[in-house]
Design brief:
Elements lengths: L16 E5 L16 H5 L1 H9 L3 E5 L16 H11 L3 E4 L5 H8 L6 E4 L6 H4 L3 H8 L4 E4 L10 H5 L6 E3 L1 H15 L5 E5 L4 H12 L4 E4 L4 H7 L14 H14 L2 E3 L3 E5 L8 E5 L8 E5 L1 H12 L3 E5 L12 H12 L3 E5 L1 H9 L8 E2 L4 H7 L5 H4 L7
This protein binds 3-phosphoglyceric acid and magnesium ion.
Magnesium ion binds next to loops.
Length: 398
């Protein structure tokens, strides 16, 4: 079912205080500098729309998982600077979420001004969707716009509670994410190839199982491939491996067989004698990982086969790296897959923080049709689940 969202275009925003929920959960280095601004740039179209129409804009977001208390390294202050630069106008920052200082800053805004609140998750009421907290947050504004697609799977106060209390609209980012990802759910052009990587099968099993019903080929790499290899009877040495997922993986493999779906697993791997960038390494067949060695990347033969599958597809979804791409000796597999996804003529969607970071590292971020800002949110949407942050926007507005 196609989701029709009421977007910010339908709102009268001029001169009004608009609370915008963004996902500014960006990576920071040890000096508090933003190392990847994808999520900040993705928020700009909605914010530009608002400031150009003289709205008084109050941005809010979470950063990291401070668990309801103040943790200085998760301050959103550095994001205000980056956002101001990208937006080309000053973004004021208030080190408060719903207290007196936030209220004063919000009510002091003049048309076209932008304010960023402190990290929502410094407040215990945020993740608990506490009604009192939601009430105070909503009280800062007259309208609400949700553009935090990456947090749309969280039923938190700033996502759901506030949307229930104010006239609520989708921002352009949230609306386009839902539209592009829904294409994969509803009308993927065949052959549809999904490439899944990342470390844990347990995180991805639900989406793997749901995707299997819709794809022609499922390609599995990354740390989670070892549970698949183990399920087919191979030894995996010291590789990442989830014993408690083996039965579920076997069921998935059997189902693929019955339904005539292809699941591609690595045939060769780059293994190392330690989990370290400078570990000794060699390339071995997937059937020959020895004890004391662990797979940290797919091998060249595998990478070429995965790239061929991507090149033969008409629709591609990629989530999760093929190996430890942050370390040059183990980056080749992820790079080959990233290049195939970037150059294929297929409609390409890339989801998830790590795959986005990999594309950015290889300079390919603008070479895919849709680069999702959501990790967990994009996977839950592709599982066919209803995201709380999306369904709340489908209610009639007050
Ligand atoms: C993300 O980075 O996946 C989103 O910002 C959501 O963050 P969370 O997983 O901590 O809720
Ligand atoms: Mg997450």
């Amino acid at each position: 079912m196609t989701v029709e969202l009421r977007t910010v275009e339908a709102a009268e925003v001029g001169g009004r205080r608009v609370l915008v929920r963004d996902d500014f959960n960006v990576p920071l280095d040890d000096h508090g500098r933003v190392t990847d601004d994808l999520r900040v740039r993705a928020a700009l179209p909605t914010l530009r729309h608002l400031v150009e129409r003289d709205a008084k804009v109050i941005c809010c977001s979470h950063l990291g998982r401070p668990k309801g208390r103040r943790v200085d390294k998760y301050s959103l202050a550095p994001v205000a600077g980056v956002l101001g630069e990208r937006l080309g106008r000053e973004v004021a920052f208030v080190d408060d979420v719903v207290g007196e200082a936030a209220k004063r800053a919000a009510s002091g805004l003049t048309p076209g001004q932008v304010l960023l609140l402190q990290n929502l998750r410094f407040e215990p009421g945020e993740e608990a969707n506490d009604p009192g907290f939601a009430e105070r947050l909503a009280g800062l504004a007259e309208l609400y716009v949700d553009d935090a697609f990456g947090a749309a799977h969280r039923a938190h106060a700033s996502v759901v509670g506030v949307a229930e209390r104010l006239p609520a609209y989708a921002g352009f980012l949230l609306a386009s994410e839902v539209k592009e990802l829904s294409r994969l759910l509803e009308s993927p052009v065949s052959p549809f190839v999904a490439v899944l990587g990342g470390s844990k099968v347990s995180d991805k099993l639900a989406v793997l199982s749901s995707l299997l019903g819709r794809v022609d080929t499922l390609v599995v790499g990354g740390g989670m491939c070892f549970t698949f290899l183990a399920a087919t009877g191979y030894g995996v040495g010291d590789s990442l491996f989830e014993q408690d997922q083996v039965d579920a993986v076997r069921d998935l493999l059997a189902r693929a067989e019955r339904e005539g779906k292809r699941i591609m697993l690595p045939t060769d791997l780059v293994v190392a004698d330690a989990f370290a960038e400078d570990a000794s390494r060699r390339t071995v067949p997937a059937s020959a990982i020895e004890p004391g060695w662990r797979g940290l990347d797919i091998g060249p033969q595998t990478a070429a086969a995965f790239a061929t599958a991507v090149n033969q597809a008409k629709t591609v979804f990629w989530n999760g790296p093929m190996g430890v791409f942050e370390w040059a000796p183990f980056a080749a597999g992820t790079r080959t897959v990233a290049e195939a996804v970037a150059t294929t003529g297929a409609y390409t969607v890339v989801g998830g923080g790590d795959s986005a970071a990999a594309l950015a590292q290889f300079g390919l971020a603008d070479k895919v049709d849709h680069l999702s800002t959501g990790g967990g949110a994009s996977l839950e949407l592709l599982e066919g689940r209803t995201l709380p942050g999306v369904s709340v926007l489908q209610r009639p507005t007050r």
